[in-house]
Amino acid sequence: MTKGTLEPHDIPSTLADLSTITKQQIIGVIGQEPFKEAIRAVLLGENIRDFTEGRTRTRLNKAYVQTIKLYIELAAKGLSADEIITAAAEAAKKQFEVKPKTFTDKQTVVLRWLYGMNGKLSQNALRDDVGNATSSYLEEYKRINEDLSKELGDINTTITYVGEDKAKYQVDFSTEHFLALMNTIGAATLTIRGSEKSVNGKAFEKLILGSLFQIMGFELTSSDSDIKDSPSFWLSSQDEGERESDATLVYKDKGVRVDIGFIGRGNTEISLDKVSRYSRKMEIDGGTVDMSTFIIVDRIGERSNIEQKAEAIDGKIFKMSSPTWVTEVANMLRAIFGEDTITFPEGMNQDESKAHIHKSLEKIDLERLLK
């Protein structure tokens, strides 16, 4: 590394890989079984966040450890806090000015963290003008750190660092280093939490609905052009001129559009507003299908009148916080499609329902649901 600059090899891949994740990657990283356990829990009325928050916290803690290690390594190479911030901003700027790019997209995310930025902040504070990152923003950023350093006083310390060669090094870590490190950790937290919220939401919508309707006896297809003579469903569909539904079920001349939202009790009206624009008819394979609407939400506030509003548009609301919500879905599907259509046994108690869900999930390929 040239003094005052950052090179790709300075950004550890272990940290860069933690910066972003896609819904297709999450099962590959962890495996299907933990996700099946989470799906089982949700189908039995438990909180999905008990699973997602643990995953998010693990990813954050790994990123924190790698970030601290990176700062110590850069300080060991003689870079001051100002030099780390400036070098990261200059490297990020060149990513947009020079072709081919020197750093990978994931490494560029880490570069932003090093000068206290994430994607959203870059869009809003810098208006995506990366050149600003080395001018007014950095001047203000450094000024604030300098003022805080004076206010906090001298908390310089010496850190014993074990290098890749297994030798021990003494590293001087200044107040400015600590402040810059905290800003980097803050930016990383915003990025990772935002990424996890987006990916978890999109992934679990498909995983929950895809599992639920296969348990009910519907066959997963790619779209309405691939429907079978048997009960069929597909995920994330959109008719011309209409908003996208999270799932669509069809059998003979009946159908159901489904909207699911892992949102709190104060925001369930958002789902109702979305589905109120669904058409009650749908053209499939040259025929007209009568459509019903299901709205699946996390929970409903005590004073909410969303259930009455849903009835006004012939919609049915199901609360995932209820331990019997899957049975309620099965009963409503029977009313729409007929008794013999739904394979989820009728009249089971909670223990029997739990055992049936557990057994049925074993046969489901979760990766297929995320394609």
What does this structure look like?
This protein has 371 residues and is of the alpha/beta class. It has 2 domains: 8-201, no CATH class; 217-343, 3-Layer(aba) Sandwich (Trna Endonuclease, Chain: A, domain 1). Helix content is 51%, strand content 15%. The protein contains 14 helices and 9 strands. The protein has helices at residues 13-19, 23-30, 32-43, 49-76, 81-97, 105-114, 119-125, 136-152, 175-215, 268-275, 306-312, 325-337, 350-361, 366-369, and strands at residues 157-162, 168-173, 219-220, 232-237, 245-251, 254-261, 281-284, 287-297, 315-319. Strands 3, 4, 5, 6, 7, 8 and 9 form a 7-stranded mixed beta sheet that branches. Helix 1 runs antiparallel to helix 4 (49-76) and helix 6 (105-114) packs across helix 9. The radius of gyration is 26 Å and the shape is elongated. The two termini are 41 Å apart. It comes from Idiomarina zobellii. InterPro entries: Restrct_endonuc_II_CfrBI.
Largest sheet: 7 strands, mixed
What structural category arises from helix and sheet content? alpha/beta
DSSP E strands, number: 9
Strand content: 5-15%
- Amino-to-carboxy terminus distance: 41 Å
Following the backbone from N to C, one meets helices and strands in this order, namely HHHHHHHHEEHEEEEHEEHEHHH
Kindly list the characteristics that best describe this protein.
single chain; 371 residues; alpha/beta; Trna Endonuclease, Chain: A, domain 1; 2 domains; 7-stranded mixed beta sheet; two-stranded antiparallel sheet; elongated; CfrBI restriction endonuclease; Restrct_endonuc_II_CfrBI
